[in-house]
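The protein record reproduced below.
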Amino acid sequence: MTTPLPDCDLLVRADTIITQDEKRRIISNGAVVIKNDIIADIGTYADMESAYAPIERLDMVGKILMPGLVNAHTHLPMTLLRGVADDLPLMRWLEKHIWPVEHQLTEEMLRIGARIGCAELIRTGCTSFLNGYFKEFTTGDEANQAGLRAVLGEGFFSFPSPMFPTAEDCWKTIRELHSKYSSSQLISTAVTPHAVFTVKPGDLEASYHLAKDLGLQWQIHLAESPEETAICLDKYGKRPVQLLADLDLLSPCTTLHHCVDVTSEEIALLSERQVNVVHNPSSNLKLNSGISPVQEMLDAGVVVGLGTDGASSNNQLNMFREMGLAALIGKVRQNDASAVNAQSVLDMATRGSANCLGMSELGQIAIGSPADLIAFDLSSPNMMPVYNPISHLVYASTGHEVCMTMVGGKILYLYGNYWTMDIKALHYDALRAKEWVVSVAKK
């Protein structure tokens, strides 16, 4: 009597599977077995077909199957401010254009901005993101509805803001947010002071201890530009990294965004303390903040992830574009064509970013990892011919070759169709949001 094959929920077949596992295996004519939202097995199509009885099948012949990308730094509702203020340095951009509009944001506008952001992430193959903004429950609810994974950080300053009179007034909101999503499969939280020039040392310490108490990542913008360093030196007589080090705020649960203006000694310190750093090439270039010494950090053993930052300082939430830029400017920074190579950039956008979220199980196709997958179409002319698929993902792609996005075994996007979002209704919401932004920007 023949023993029945074990069942599985879904068998996904593809010409090429880029696993991003520990060995960085690439499997030709492969298949991924999914059961209960988790990757149950992976191998050649022939082996998986003969070993399992799938309830459903998804044929991605002619495609690359790979882990969903992880955006380790963004402010999703800032899609509302995409193009509002361009071609300006960081501080003038913030103080004269962004903060005045942000102070008037309503819950409705935040939801629309987050919804637009979710649609863009899904379309360009991003399945998880680390966020920082205001009224984060709005972004959490929209991400949950769209089916994306999100780590939410309620932003705060030491000076009064429309959200909180003081930094400590944010602690209750952080705890409530953490409690709200404590049982969620998709949404979790982080603690998110804005920066060392906007949050006092005592508030930085208190927020860090809150993160430790709740078991959360602690994320902050740091050393984003020489101008920030100058402000920090003027206020505290210390550079940003050293300030956090002296406050004992550098640890594996710390995620630092940008780290453009850092010295070799500071990089060694970040490595020693096992700190996570998120590189944001587009935003850094657009604001003329500088080019982060990424290869030096990688060589020192620093965990480096990749992020887009908000769509108002990048104008896109496209992680494929971010990968290409990271590789190109990394070579210029090092004056070395071999620096920040394609594989290291893909590592940053997957495994590295996953660590920055405090979710090391993401960013790889491996047994036991969540079934967060994307499929990449090789039929467009810019992808022909293929010699090295990883090179194509980083240097040749636009991101719009993504033809399937899946989170936890659930399809969110397939061949032009959004399965969890009403994209036509979103278009009208965006037009309405534009009218609102124009009206408040004139005040």
About this structure: The domain at 7-67+363-418 is CATH 2.30.40.10 (Urease, subunit C; domain 1). The mean pLDDT is 96. The first strand starts at residue 7 and ends at 18. Residues 423-441 form the longest helix (19 residues).
